[in-house]
Design brief:
The chain is of the alpha+beta class. It folds into five domains: 1-32, no CATH class; 42-166, Topoisomerase II, domain 5 (Alpha-Beta Complex), CATH 3.90.199; 250-334, 2-Layer Sandwich (Gyrase A, domain 2), CATH 3.30.1360.40; 368-486, Topoisomerase, domain 3 (Orthogonal Bundle), CATH 1.10.268; 525-756, Neuraminidase (6 Propeller), CATH 2.120.10. It is built from 23 helices and 38 strands. Strands 20, 21, 22, 25 and 26 form a five-stranded mixed sheet that branches. Strands 16-11-10-19 form a four-stranded mixed sheet. A four-stranded antiparallel sheet has the order 12-13-15-14. Helix 13 (356-393) packs across helix 16 and helix 13 (356-393) packs antiparallel against helix 18. The longest helix has 38 residues, at 356-393.
């Protein structure tokens, strides 16, 4: 296929340039995606904020809306942000979002008035609500200066704003990201307990060679503001940056009414949309899809909302089992949700997927960088002051000469020239050699201030400055000293966070096996009937009895937690869970689902002949045996319970019978009970010959291994069997074995026409 080209004009040289169209489009799309991600949707790894969130907090900082300041109208903040920092439309939704403590464990904005709550009640208009920075928001912007973090021009190049805040806590790990969707990038990061996350950062700073398992032992796992239970592999998430969890709410039994359940916690992503959830559940109840539930009502109080709790009462039908009702709510409603995570964050302007250890390394390095920059700024400030102090200490001895110089010069600049020794004046009383900074400080002082210079106090200040400079140099040059300082600072934050109520986790952690066991233990099991017709269509209904006709070849009665087992002529047993099958209504005339579609993932193409349909529960019944006969006359029987046919986990394919070579195949497979083994016969037919023996005469094997013994055909005789049947005594022409109905068979007797196979 020819490569697509495009023509681009080189404006500088006015010449056409040929480029590959596919590559140009890919590059343009990538550049656009990165631009959107870096300017709109993906948080910075260092402070955990998206650009609009950072600009909102910066605008509030510039407006001096500290935690102790008076609240200011949200509309004022929105207008300031839109006019000066982020002109991409109304940002009130983002202001509202930053107040939500059911999203952020450390919400950076404190709201006054009606903001969106956990139930989903929307925020009032911006002209009615007020905001200011919370303690956690203020902590993000403390010590904000261009000497600590990089700044950039705003959108119209009239102001400067920070690219990142000098965050002292691991905010991205603590607050996470509920959702961030850019062009080609998605960011969803789990929130964590603030105390655990801060303690982990402190420990990592002290021991950078920390293992992932050690980090997990400190962090434990995600801790969602809405509580609930999280099932999944936290180690895989922290190791790869990608995770998939099941997040379930919490349901408790009512102490006041035996027919009432109370939902006290909801999944994280349901926060802010509980009203919508209630409407959906009420619709399900009205449609009869939640028959055990009579009603659902919300009794959540303002106190509950403040603590990210809910009180939703679920009224059950009289005496309905509570565990079954809880399972129904988890299975049929959004009270248990899939929680997919991808740890995407900005490294500078580039989106990058982080693992836990990569994140810790990045943030720890940033903390070291902040300390170095902090003390470099302090070193610069102290050195400048020391330089001035050194000059001022000389003032008492030179005061008359300085005053004389001031009286005989034209202005400050001229005086500074004299003080620096760059210029002399007539009758100069002393020789000066002050630095420019010292000269500026002295020239800026009034005469009465010169008279009040306290040399002794300045000498003491000089000693303090020299000590301060020495310590600053040590912090800049000695990593171990920085580690000690950072550890002390983080310890202070941990104490403060504990006082704020973050000392204990809100979310219970469980693994997937625990969830599966819990679901299996309390799953709602319903009886079903499965029919398979002559064309291979499988139909599952909730009927107890079904009408059979010539089209129906197999009828299986079981429950919907069972597995359907298909034995094929090539010796395979294929398995599917009935939970994956569509359940048809009793009056539905649909033929069902084609076996080729149901078993497509098992590698079944429809070409292999099916020799038996059964279920896992039938295989697992005590005393049940299976009889297998190949067309070469090999036969065996063995107990199915505890055999390789009763796998502990659902497997797509199991080798049920080892076909010896390509010319042999399974001709007959049947489940039989102990009573049937004692009284039934088995007959093999080849052309006009047959051999009939007691079913008990088929050799019983200790296991499923092997192809069996030569039972019906002599090894020297190469002719294959045509059919095999089981008969209930000499006069029986119809037989049901293990719930499977066989077709009618005429009674066969010895005669001159029919002879026994030798």
């Amino acid at each position: 296929m020819a490569t697509k080209k495009k023509i681009k004009i080189d404006l500088k040289h006015d010449k056409p340039v040929v480029e590959d169209l596919d590559q140009s489009m890919k590059q343009a799309f990538t550049n656009y995606g990165i631009a959107v991600a870096s300017d709109r949707s993906v948080p910075n790894v260092l402070d955990g904020l998206k650009p609009v969130q950072r600009r909102i907090l910066y605008a509030m900082t510039m407006a001096k809306l500290s935690p102790t300041a008076k609240f200011k109208k949200s509309q004022t903040v929105v207008g300031d942000v839109m006019g000066n920092w982020h002109p991409h439309g109304d940002n009130y939704g983002s202001v509202d979002y930053l107040t939500q403590n059911f999203v952020f464990p450390l919400a950076p904005i404190e709201g006054h008035g009606s903001f969106t709550d956990i139930s989903g009640n929307p925020a009032a208009a911006a002209r009615y609500t007020e905001v200011r920075l919370s303690r956690f928001g203020q902590l993000m912007v403390n010590d904000l200066s261009e000497k600590l973090v990089p700044y950039e021009d705003n959108y119209d190049n009239t102001k400067r704003m920070p690219r990142v805040f000098p965050a002292k806590l691991p905010y991205l790990l603590i607050n996470g990201v509920k959702t961030g969707i850019a062009v080609g990038f998605t960011s969803s990061i789990a929130p964590h307990n603030p105390v655990d996350a801060t303690r982990l950062l402190k420990q990592y700073i002290k021991t950078p060679k920390m293992t992932l398992d050690k980090a997990i032992s400190i962090l434990q796992g995600p801790d969602l503001p809405t509580g609930g239970t999280l099932y999944g592999d936290v180690r895989a998430y922290y190791k790869t940056g990608v995770g998939k969890f099941q997040n379930a709410g919490t349901i408790v039994d009512s102490d006041e009414d035996k027919n009432t359940l109370i939902i006290t916690e909801v999944p994280y992503r349901m926060g802010g949309s509980i009203n919508s959830y209630l409407d959906k559940v009420k619709d399900l109840i009205a449609d009869g899809k939640l028959k055990p539930i009579r009603s659902i009502d919300d009794f959540t109080t303002d106190e509950d909302i403040a603590n990210n709790k809910v009180r939703i009462e679920v009224t059950l039908q009289n005496n309905y089992d509570h565990e079954q009702a809880k399972t129904l709510l988890f299975q049929k409603t959004d009270l248990r949700q899939t929680y997919s995570l991808e740890w995407m964050a900005l490294d500078g302007l580039t989106p990058k997927r982080y693992t836990l250890m990569q994140y810790l390394q990045t943030v720890a390095n940033f903390q070291h960088t902040l300390v170095v920059r902090e003390y470099k700024a302090d070193l610069e400030k102290a050195s400048a002051r020391l330089e001035i102090v050194d000059g001022l200490i000389q003032v008492p001895d030179l005061i008359q000469a300085i005053v004389h110089a001031a009286q005989n010069t034209d202005g400050k600049a001229d005086l500074m020239q004299v003080l620096q020794g760059l210029k002399t004046i007539p009758a100069q009383m002393a020789s000066f050699s002050f630095t420019e900074r010292q000269a500026d400080a002295i020239a800026s002082m009034r005469v009465y201030q010169l008279n009040r210079v306290d040399a002794q106090a300045l000498v003491a200040e000089k000693a303090d400055l020299e000590e301060r400079i020495a310590m600053a140099k040590r912090y800049i040059e000695e990593p171990d000293l920085r580690v000690q300082l950072l550890s002390e600072r983080l310890d202070e934050q941990i104490k403060a966070l504990k006082k704020d109520g973050f000392g204990s986790r809100r979310t219970t952690l469980g693994d997937e096996s625990e969830l599966k066991a819990k679901v299996a233990k309390t799953v709602i099991i319903n009886p079903v009937t499965i029919t398979i017709d002559r064309y291979g269509y499988i139909k599952m209904t909730d009927k107890r009895e079904v009408e059979t006709d010539d089209e129906i070849q197999f009828v299986l009665q079981t429950t919907d937690d069972d597995w359907l087992e298909m034995f094929t002529a090539d010796g395979r047993m294929l398995q599917v869970g009935l939970s994956s099958l569509k359940k048809y209504k009793a009056r539905d005339n649909n033929r069902g689902d084609a076996a080729m579609a149901v078993f497509a993932d098992n590698g079944y193409t429809g070409d292999d002949r099916v020799v038996l349909w059964t279920t896992r529960k039938h295989l697992d019944e005590a005393g049940t045996e299976i009889v297998m006969v190949s067309k070469r006359g090999l036969a065996k029987r063995f107990a199915t319970a505890e055999s390789k046919l009763t796998t502990k986990t659902l497997r797509k394919t199991v080798e049920a019978y080892p076909v010896k070579d390509g010319s042999d195949e399974l001709l007959f497979v049947q489940l039989v009970s102990q009573t049937e083994i004692k009284s039934f016969d088995i007959i093999a037919i080849r052309g006009e010959e047959y051999k009939r023996i007691k079913l008990s005469a088929v050799k019983l094997q200790a296991s499923a291994a092997g192809a069996g013994t030569q039972t019906f055909v002599d090894k020297k005789n190469s002719a294959d069997l045509d059919a095999v049947y089981i008969l209930n005594g000499p006069e029986t022409d119809l037989l049901k074995v293990a719930g499977v109905q066989l077709r009618q068979l005429p009674v066969l007797r010895e005669s001159q026409t029919f002879k026994k196979i030798q």
